[in-house]
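Subject: sequence -> structure tokens, single chain

Hey, anyone have a minute? Need the predicted structure for the following. Not urgent.
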Amino acid sequence: PALWSRFNLSASRARLGCLFERAKGYPLSLFYDYAIVSGLDQSGALPSEPGVTGILEANLARVQSLELEGLPDQRNGRYEKIADALFRTEAPLLRELIMSSDRDFALTRPLFGGHAPHLRQVTLSGINMTWDTGLFRNLSSLTIENGGIDFRPGTDICDIVRSCPRLESLSLQRPVIPE
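Reply:
Had a minute. Here:
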């Protein structure tokens, strides 16, 4: 079953059903590239329902690794569906999060309802977000590429590092830090 617990959400409905069944109760590693599938359905859904956001919401409690590529910007109607699923749904087993966008994807509220206690590795590329949520306090690895770091007044990068006492690796590649 562990062999079947890593899969791409852009698979057909029949294939996804088979993969979820074979994974049984094992933690999941999920991947999805919105940019590849965006031509299929402008609502952000897979060619078959319930759509990626529905799959994420229904299974996020079992996800240990989540990789979302090609996330849309706020001007795209799919943004709200994706963002709401990520904001509202807790991720108690999540250990690794990789998110990328080439369109300025912004996270304006805490991810996963503020609950991802096992989150250790985060890689963000082209993602803008606030960092004062406490969600990242257990991180051991943080990578920010081409992304914005939105600070509340009186907060700076040192505050982020201090809020991650277990941080062993920090990589900032072309970060956008407001003055």
